[in-house]
Structures are given as C-alpha cells and as structure tokens.
Design a protein that fits this description.
Helix content is 27%, strand content 28%. It is of the alpha+beta class. It has a domain of 106 residues: Aminopeptidase (3-Layer(aba) Sandwich). The protein has a 7-stranded mixed sheet, with helices on both faces. Belongs to the acetyltransferase family. RimI subfamily.
Length: 169
C-alpha cells in the first residue's frame, strides 16, 4: 500500500458521529442523515457499510453503504450512499469505496442499482467507468432542493440476465 491509498474497512458505531458531521458538510441542503439513520443502517443485517481512512484506525474520510436484498440466485444490491470528505475528494477514495461495494455484489452475482444527482458529473463518470448505465430519471428526488437523480444500473458480474419484476396480475 502506498501513502496515497486509503484504508478501507468496516464502518463502526464509533464512526457514526463523524459520518453525521460529514453529512451536514456534504449534503447540508438535501436532508443530511442524522446519527440515528446511520445506527439504523448498521443494525440492518442486509447492509454492508465501509469506511475510508488515511491510516488504520484513523478518522474516517469517506463512507459507503450497500444493501443486498432478495433470495439466492436472484439477489439485487442497492448502493445507499457513497460520500467523501470534500477535503479528500479527487484522490481515489470514492473509487476505492465503490470497488469495495461492488465486491459485495459480485460475491452474490447481483445487479447493482443507485441514484445520483444529474449534475454530479464526477460521480456519474466514476460509475460509468465501473459498468453502470443510466436506466431512469427521478424528478425531484433530492429534497428539499428538488434536484433530479439518475437511476443507474450495473449488471451482475456473470452477465446473467436481470429478470424484470412482475407487476400485479
């Protein structure tokens, strides 16, 4: 590992206050998650959360979470968040966090869904480089700003087809 590579490990309950503080900095205008939301996310058995640190055991400089839902042979994953301290953006931390989450999805051969602001060009480019394509638009998704979001999808690593959800009969 070089000095510029982040350490990626599990997000812990001790990291929650720092996450809540970073949420206010990063998402102040769009309903930042409070500490209670992070506790709920860490408590859910289907979620996996990662922390990025400059050194082992150090303060977090980024965090990310993914859920794995469904049944074997038909799992789906959804990225809930990927966030990097603005002072550390552009250093490959988001890429490292994304790759950790994609490894979770690849273990169960799941497609991965996420939402991203339509004006977040760096994130859209990162996701595109990792195989995501835009599959939808959610108008007014982010509140209270009303910013739109793209829904993006990365197919399962095996290339297996994604079964469309069956609607009501």
């Amino acid at each position: 590992m070089t000095a510029s590579e982040p350490v990626i490990d599990a997000l812990t309950y001790d990291d929650i206050p720092r996450c809540a503080m970073l949420e206010k900095v990063i998402y102040g205008d769009d309903s930042p998650w409070p500490a209670s939301a992070f506790r709920a996310e860490l408590n859910a058995p289907y979620n996996t959360y990662f922390a990025a640190r400059e050194e082992p055991g150090g303060e977090i400089i980024g965090y990310a979470g993914i859920s794995t839902l469904g049944q074997p042979e038909a799992y789906e994953c959804e990225i809930h968040t990927i966030s990097v301290d603005p002072r550390h953006q552009g250093k490959g931390i988001g890429k490292a966090l994304l790759e950790a989450m994609l490894a979770v999805a690849d273990e169960v051969d799941a497609p991965v869904y996420l939402e991203v602001r339509t004006d977040n060009d760096p994130a859209i480019a990162l996701y595109s480089r990792h195989g995501f394509t835009t599959v939808g638009l959610r108008r007014g998704y982010y509140q209270p700003s009303g910013a739109d979001a793209y829904t993006m999808l990365r197919a399962p690593s095996s290339g297996r087809p994604i079964e469309p959800e069956e609607g009501p009969a």
